[in-house]
Write a structure and sequence with these properties.
Largest sheet: 6 strands, antiparallel
Helix content: 10-25%
Number of strands: 6
Oligomer: single chain
Distance between the termini: 36 Å
Structural class: alpha+beta
Amino acid sequence: MFSNMKARLLLRERQSLTETAFIEVVIWRVPKPVSGSGHDYKYSMALIAEGACVLRYDNEAGKGDHKHAAGREVAYRFTSLATLQTDFWNDVDRWRAEQ
């Protein structure tokens, strides 16, 4: 994994969407790429509804960049933090529109 002494927290946010849904975002800048990723960020961006994770973007060590949606795990092509956040929020907006 990475050392918290060398990693730098860039963002930690929890935001309520409804009484039963919220998002949680954590982004670190790490001293070296997480195994499977080619950039120096470690992140987890999740949408939790009714106590279940319905959407998550993350780069778990060994798996690299990917997202979990609709019960599936699919590869995600990381290009920048800005694009990552835009893609995540676009998926959150789609989920909200379907509710």
